[in-house]
């Protein structure tokens, strides 16, 4: 029996993403993926028990690293909240507007109507990330950098402002309304008009 390797797993995920993007989740098959990887179906099933598990791994591999990089920019000790939120916003939009992410999100949303896969992916990815962001906003409140409010509501407002005019058009295959820097600058401005304290 061949030893499973991280490199082999990564190569399978990369190939699977290509297949999912080309034909969609429903029409993609483990047979087609294993043929393109250049191994047997048995080898593929040795790494991933099902197509659903493989798609989840593909989605997470695309989003998790970059999402964590973006969240790592949220330094609650830094009093320059405008700069911190701007840096975070640009990293967040870069992740969400990449063609890879847009394709996978479309598939996950479509699949959400057919199974619990979409909901599970949402809990593993976006929901977990925004809980981290709510935690950052709660720390800003403790440090008196922003006003007291439910941090989950504040996080939802920040998310909505950052995505406005950008994510929805891209998901529909249209052009974003704004350049990322303009979208983020305005989003941060409006967020701090609502949640900021005078003098910050």
The amount of beta strand, in percent, is under 5%
First-to-last CA distance: 61 Å
What average pLDDT do the residues reach? 86
Order of helices and strands: HHHHHHHHHH
The count of β-strands is 0
**What general form does the structure show?**
elongated
Coarse structural class:
mainly alpha
Largest sheet data:
none
Radius of gyration (Å): 19 Å
Q: How many H/I helical runs?
A: 10
The unreliable regions are none
Fraction in helix: over 70%
Descriptive account of the structure:
- With 200 residues, this protein is mostly helical.
- The protein is 75% helix and 0% strand.
- It has helices at residues 6-27, 30-37, 41-47, 51-72, 81-97, 99-112, 117-142, 151-163, 167-171, 180-195.
- The longest helix is centred in the middle third of the chain and has 26 residues, at 117-142.
- The radius of gyration is 19 Å and the shape is elongated.
- The mean pLDDT is 86.
Summarize the topology.
Layout (H helix, E strand, L loop, with lengths): L5 H22 L2 H8 L3 H7 L3 H22 L8 H17 L1 H14 L4 H26 L8 H13 L3 H5 L8 H16 L5
Helix pairs in contact: 1-2, 1-4, 1-6, 2-3, 4-5, 4-7, 5-10, 6-7, 7-8, 8-10
Write a brief structural summary.
By secondary structure, the chain is mainly alpha-helical. Helix content is 75%, strand content 0%.
Keywords:
200 residues, mainly alpha, 10 helices, 75% helix, elongated
């Amino acid at each position: 029996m061949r030893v499973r390797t991280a490199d082999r797993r990564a190569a399978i995920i990369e190939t699977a993403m290509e297949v999912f993007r080309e034909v969609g989740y429903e029409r993609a098959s483990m047979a087609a993926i294993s043929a393109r990887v250049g191994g047997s179906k048995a080898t593929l099933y040795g790494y991933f028990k099902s197509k659903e598990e493989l798609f989840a791994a593909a989605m997470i591999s695309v989003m998790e690293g970059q999402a964590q990089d973006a969240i790592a920019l949220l330094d609650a000790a830094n009093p320059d909240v405008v700069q911190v939120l701007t840096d975070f916003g640009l990293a967040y939009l870069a992740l969400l507007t990449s063609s890879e992410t847009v394709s996978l999100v479309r598939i996950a949303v479509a699949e959400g109507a057919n199974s619990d896969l979409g909901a599970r992916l949402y809990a593993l990815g976006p929901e977990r990330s925004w809980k981290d962001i709510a935690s950052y906003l709660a720390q800003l409140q403790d440090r008196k950098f922003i006003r007291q409010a439910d941090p989950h509501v504040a996080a939802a407002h920040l998310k909505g402002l950052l995505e406005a005019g950008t994510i929805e058009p891209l998901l529909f295959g249209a052009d974003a309304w704004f350049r990322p820097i303009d979208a983020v600058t305005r989003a941060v401005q409006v967020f701090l008009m609502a949640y900021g304290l005078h003098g910050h």
